[in-house]
Amino acid sequence: MQNSLLNTHVTTIDGEATTLEKYAGKVLLIVNVASRCGLTSQYEQLENIHKAWADRGFVVLGFPCNQFMGQEPGSEEEIKTYCANTWGVTFPMFSKIDVNGEARHPLYQKTDSRCAKRQSRRTRAVFTNEW
After folding, report:
1. C-beta separation of 106 from 7 below 8 A
2. pLDDT at residue 83 is higher than 50
3. HEC-encoded secondary structure of 7-65
4. Are strands 58-64 and 27-33 parallel, antiparallel or unpaired?
5. How far apart are CA 74 and CA 123, in angstroms?
6. How many structural domains is the chain composed of?
7. CATH of the domain at 83
8. In which domain, by residue range, is 73 found?
9. Residue 37 and residue 41: Cα distance in Å, rounded?
10. Based on C-alpha coordinates, what's the Rg of the chain?
11. How far apart are CA 11 and CA 9, in angstroms?
């Protein structure tokens, strides 16, 4: 459990240090988001998904990121206000993080390494017919 995603230290959009342990047993959609992106309207879709499936244990977690053409330059307070007032976001939002590079947040390090492992196994299976 030491390497579990649930043990990962994160900071809420309000500045509270926490882990993802309170989401144990839930299905998580971890999304990097940006307020000045061509896909910003997806906040509304993410909120709709969150509301539709929350009672079944599905949770959207939003992690703002400014690494893609500077599309999330605001402060946490600006991001929180924008998301709530413009898109009605109620799903949990966290502080701005890096999702790529040397300063990549540990959450994305863990998800990337797990996806890479699964992908490599799948690729091996495809090429060797080991289904």
Report:
1. no
2. yes
3. HCEEEECCCCEEECHHHCCCEEEEEEECCCCCCCCHHHHHHHHHHHHHHHCEEEEEEEC
4. parallel
5. 40
6. 1
7. 3.40.30.10
8. 5-128
9. 9
10. 16
11. 7
**CB atoms < 10 A from the CB of 32, how many?**
21
How many Cα atoms are found within 13 Å in the side-chain-facing hemisphere of 115? 6
Q: What is the pLDDT of residue 119?
A: 44
Q: Poorest-confidence range of 20-24, 53-57, 78-82, 102-106?
A: 102-106
**Which residues have a catalytic role annotated?**
37
pLDDT confidence bin for 109, thresholds 50/70/90: confident
Q: For position 69, what pLDDT does the model report?
A: 66
Q: How many CA atoms lie within 13 A of 83 on its CB side?
A: 28
pLDDT at residue 42 tops 90: no
